[in-house]
């Protein structure tokens, strides 16, 4: 998967955490996602459909999730409850929504977010692409973004136009 | 002043409620989807402002705006949403929304937008 398809999500995470949590984040090296059968992490997932398609998820260790949602609402949480689940759903909703606005000339719609905990799930990448994991670190803990994105015909068309213009110049 | 917060996320309703209380706005009603907002707006004519999310189950915020305006209800509506594209803003304004606040936002952004409305109410 090309960086141009992943960068909008990375930028969106930076903006969302900075604006809503007052929490700057550092981006780590992307890697191909591997299943973690022992995970107890909280996962928020959202789908993107339209001229491009994708799945984006945020995977937060329990303590990072408690810190993040606590920071969002100015409260202290000590256990996973409906507020944390709801907050993680809202986080991925904002990350996905903010990212989709960064894809030029694309008409993309968001699904409603889903939140799961632990290892009773399997994220399946879209046909013809892979799931990339992008790790982040911050003062509230580490977390990951998982992205599987399939660009639509509009972007392919734009590339063709650029190549054509280059050939004539 | 009475404000109706419409958002399916309890965390987002909590964040907005916190800002409203800081501004001494104590009369706050909540709805978790567009249909509830339409029903409350039809019954409660004392609402001075609606803060409306876009993507919600049962009925979206944009459909709720259209229905509220179809009832000739002129209550000010601020869209508070992740839908930040220019076309979406135009769609909301065309449907009858008065203003737009794009997520991610922080409490200061919400406060600035609300103060604009409070000023128009002379408060």
Any overview of this molecule?
- Chain A has 169 residues and is α+β, with helices and mostly antiparallel strands.
- Chain A has one domain (3-168): 3-Layer(aba) Sandwich (Chemotaxis protein chec), CATH 3.40.1550.
- Chain A contains four helices and eight strands; from the N terminus they run H-E-E-E-E-H-H-E-E-E-E-H.
- Chain A has helices at residues 3-21, 62-73, 82-100, 153-168, and strands spanning 25-27, 31-32, 42-50, 53-60, 108-110, 114-117, 132-138, 143-150.
- In chain A, helix 1 crosses helix 3.
- The longest helix of chain A has 19 residues, at 3-21.
- The relative contact order of chain A is 0.26.
- Chain B has one domain (2-120): Rossmann fold (3-Layer(aba) Sandwich), CATH 3.40.50.2300.
- Chain B has 123 residues and is of the alpha/beta class.
- The model of chain B has no long low-confidence stretch (mean pLDDT 93).
- In chain B, helix 1 (10-22) links the parallel strand 1 and strand 2 (27-31).
- In chain B, strands 2-1-3-4-5 form a five-stranded parallel beta sheet, with helices on both faces.
- Classes of the chains: A alpha+beta (169), B alpha/beta (123).
- At the A-B interface, helix 1, helix 2 and helix 3 of A face helix 1 of B.
Write the layout of secondary structure elements.
The complex is a heterodimer of chains A (169) and B (123).
Chain A: H1 3-21, E1 25-27, E2 31-32, E3 42-50, E4 53-60, H2 62-73, H3 82-100, E5 108-110, E6 114-117, E7 132-138, E8 143-150, H4 153-168
Antiparallel strand pairs in A: 1-7, 2-7, 3-4, 3-5, 3-6, 4-8, 7-8
Chain B: E1 2-6, H1 10-22, E2 27-31, H2 34-43, E3 49-52, H3 61-70, E4 77-81, H4 86-95, E5 99-102, H5 107-120
Parallel strand pairs in B: 1-2, 1-3, 3-4, 4-5
